[in-house]
Amino acid sequence: MFYGWIVVGAGMLITCVGMGTMFSLGVFLRPLAESMGWTRTGISTVALLNWIFMGLGSFVWGTLSDRIGTRTVALTGGAILGTALVLASRATTLLQFQITFGAMVGFAAGAFYAPLTAAVTKWFTTNRSLAVALVSAGIGIGTFTIAPLARVLISAYDWRTAMLVIGDLAWLVIIPVALLVRPVPQAVPSVLTVGETRPREYTAIGAISTPQFWAIAFTHFACCAAHSGPIFHMVTNAIDHGIPALAAATVFGVSGLASVGGRVLCGLLADRFGAKRTLLVGLALQAVTVSLYLVTTDLLSFYALSVVFGLSFGGVMPLYAILVREYFGERIMGTAYGAVFLVSTLGMALGSWSGGWLYDLSGSYAWLFMGSTAIGVGAVAIALTFGPPRPLSAALPSLTPAG
Predict the structure, then answer these.
(1) How far, in Å, are 9, 219, 339, 350 from residue 345 at the CA level?
(2) Which of 22, 16, 20 is nearest to 101 (CA)?
(3) pLDDT digits (tens, 9 = 90+) for 87-114
(4) Which of 1, 165, 178, 383 has the fewest CB atoms within 10 Å distance of its CB?
(5) Which of 108, 120, 48, 28 is nearest to 400 (CA)?
(6) DSSP state for residue 101 in the 8-state scheme
(7) How many CA atoms lie within 13 Å of 358's alpha carbon, on the beta-carbon side?
(8) Is residue 95 within a helix (H) or strand (E), and if so which, with residue range?
(9) Residue 279 in contact with residue 316, Cβ under 8 Å?
């Protein structure tokens, strides 16, 4: 078997547990508010810190992965993540919980998605979009599995026990699986034919200085700002409409499962029709589905909408990494994509926090859904400004094994 697919499988599993634990905070929101007396704004601030520190971590870990290797980065992130969750399960004040689950979990989670995605793009010249989509699918699988697991543990015990078990799970899965991640074997450089030129190789500063970088980054920001609020408050919004807590958690899980299908489907479509075209369709669908939460009130409608919403927000996520690779090549992939992901996490932080703030202010999530819809339309408008990518899909095709 081509070893690149082993790296993809390891990336899926690490991303599943690493990101799934962070996304499970939405399930803990109501139990924390009831048990500890914290406001939804205060708990939503934890999500704000999650995304800010994950963004910073993605850039730091991505840069380190270019220098010391993705395996070391993933191992270190797994160790920090488990420690942070165990400490969060013992928190007695909101500040302690914000530091442990907010800052520490967020920074540790940054060691997974962006560095592993960058590593996978270096293994493939064909089927690259599909490979990246499969790693990204780990996020959806994590949402589908970790969130319901947390809900079951909370119902059987309490939120502290649930968080402690999930922290132990992070140690037991991520650390050994990270050992499977290997760098791409070095190959003999190809000889250029007469008249052939290699595409430009960017430095990190050179990439960040281009308008293409900021177009991708701001589209990713607006995309994440549009869907992060509805994702984070999905369970609580359903409960507020009279849906039982466990059923509301499964609605969240269904959206995660649908996002897996969306990532794989859009990966296949991007390999065939191009990442930009696929991204535009996905962003438009996302904006429409978010607006429909304004009129969704019963369980069946929540399930149906979560499927479409999961397909749309899940499908667009891996495409940004493909665009970064197409524009800037593989040499600085970890740094460049880590920087784009840093900008996008600010959008995730804004959407998650503003949802809690708007709810506490108005007593409803209606303003959240209206604002998210408008921002989603803005993401489509920014994506339309993308210029042409690099002339070739890989900087040095012969140096990378075919997938």
Answers:
(1) 24, 12, 10, 8
(2) 22
(3) 999 999 999 999 999 999 999 998 998 8
(4) 1
(5) 120
(6) I
(7) 19
(8) helix 94-97
(9) yes
How far apart CA 144 and CA 214 sit, in angstroms, is 32
Residue 397 DSSP label: G
Give CA–CA dist 368/293, Å, rounded.
10
* Neighbouring C-alpha atoms within 13 Å toward the C-beta of 159: 20
Q: 223 Cβ partners below 8 Å, 6+ apart?
A: 283, 286, 313, 316, 344, 347, 376, 379
Which string of b and e fits 160-190 if b means at least 16 CB within 10 Å? bebbbbbbebbbebbbebbebbbebeeeeee
The candidate with the shortest Cα–Cα distance to 22, out of 40, 57, 3, 46, is 46
User: CA-CA distances (angstroms) from residue 33 to 27, 38, 44, 80, 128?
Assistant: 11, 5, 11, 26, 43
Q: Give residue 247's identity as a one-letter amino acid code.
A: A
Distance CA 35, CA 89 (A): 13
Average pLDDT, the chain: 83
Look at residue 257 and tell me whether its pLDDT is greater than 90.
Answer: no
Residue 206 and residue 215: Cα distance in Å, rounded? Answer: 15
d(CA 12, CA 174): 11
Q: Residue 114 and residue 129: Cα distance in Å, rounded? A: 15
How many other CB atoms sit within 10 Å of the CB of residue 242? 10
**3 state SS of 340:** helix
Distances in Å between the Cα of 219 and the Cα atoms of 46, 80, 213 are: 24, 30, 10
Name the pLDDT band for 201 (thresholds 50, 70, 90): low
Residue 94: both structure tokens together: 């909101």
Residues with Cβ within 8 Å of residue 248, at least 6 apart in sequence: 234, 235, 236, 238, 239, 302
Whether residue 56 has pLDDT greater than 90: no
Residue type for 200, please?
Answer: R
Per-residue pLDDT reduced to its tens digit, 275-333 = 888 999 999 999 999 999 998 888 899 999 999 998 998 888 888 888 888 888 777 77
